[in-house]
Amino acid sequence: MEMNARYTSFVAVGDSFTEGMSDGLPDGSYRGWADLLAARLAARTPGFRYANLAVRGKLIGQIADEQCGPAASMGADLVTLVGGLNDVLRPQCDVEQVCTRLADAAGLLAKGGGQLVLMRSPGRRGPVLERFRPRMEQLFARIDELAAQHGAVVVDLYASRALADPRLWADDRLHLNAEGHRRVAEAVWQALGLDAESDWDAPLPAAAPPGWGARRAADVRFAREHLVPWIGRRLTGRSSGDGRPAKRPELLPYEG
């Protein structure tokens, strides 16, 4: 990879992580690390173009089948692919099949000729991460293999101790908050060989843990607002992304 390259176009594919949940804007939409990265790249390259095909709730097979062909045909010189975590967090999952579909997705995008970026997704500290850690690590091992095969850059967010801090996660405990997304954008920026603006993996200042009452209230709110609806979608075969279009489906000049 050419270090400090001047990218003229960027297309992002994936699920809610790349769509930008839960970096909320005042109008109710989401920004996220990919938008932040696009803004920074556009600031140094006149005429910079950006597309974001990611849609929340998508499984890796859907990403491969619905997003990667169109993304590759855009001919962008920078492409990011993050997917598979929605699959491995489900109760029943064939991780090897997930890895196979991830390979399909990476292969399609590599045909587009741009610099491919893959990620080892961050994990929030807690029992959920420990339960699914073996699946995640199997997926991430395949990501390293695909990177070697296609000359891709791997951004290792999973190894980040800072991004494991619950204070960088939204109330739904599944998505990063605004500061978490800002750090991911900086991590990708640096992985592309661009000059660092901050230490994206710097630990947060020490703080006293919340008391029992605050934790209990947060648990009740999480269950009511996030866990129960999630279970309902699983039981009925629905997804949060059903019928939802990509927020930037065409590779067009970036406007902040």
TrEMBL record:
<dbReference type="InterPro" id="IPR036514">
    <property type="entry name" value="SGNH_hydro_sf"/>
</dbReference>
<keyword id="KW-0378">Hydrolase</keyword>
<dbReference type="GO" id="GO:0016787">
    <property type="term" value="F:hydrolase activity"/>
</dbReference>
<dbReference type="InterPro" id="IPR013830">
    <property type="entry name" value="SGNH_hydro"/>
</dbReference>
<protein>
    <submittedName>
        <fullName>SGNH/GDSL hydrolase family protein</fullName>
    </submittedName>
</protein>
<dbReference type="Pfam" id="PF13472">
    <property type="entry name" value="Lipase_GDSL_2"/>
</dbReference>
<feature type="domain" description="SGNH hydrolase-type esterase">
    <location>
        <begin position="12"/>
        <end position="183"/>
    </location>
</feature>
<dbReference type="InterPro" id="IPR053140">
    <property type="entry name" value="GDSL_Rv0518-like"/>
</dbReference>
<feature type="region of interest" description="Disordered">
    <location>
        <begin position="237"/>
        <end position="256"/>
    </location>
</feature>
